[in-house]
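User: My instructor asked us to take a sequence, write out its structure as tokens, and then describe one feature of it. I'm not sure where to start. Here is the sequence I was given:
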Amino acid sequence: MLTRQIPPSLVDEVLEETGWAQRRFRALPSRLGVYFVLALCLFSGSSYESVIARMVSGR
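Assistant: Let's start with the prediction itself. The structure tokens for your sequence are:
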């Protein structure tokens, strides 16, 4: 849902321009972190676990 409105290429571009691009592999990649924060805003009444479950259910 979010990637249709905000394409991954745009997220990567903004991360690069702001100096927050991923430099090494971590448990939560930078791009996924951005989408997670956006999803937390959309589902503000839900727990972190519930939001992550919504994000991965469509995969």
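For the description part of your assignment, you could build on this observation: Residues 2-57 form one domain. Try explaining in your own words what that tells you about the chain.
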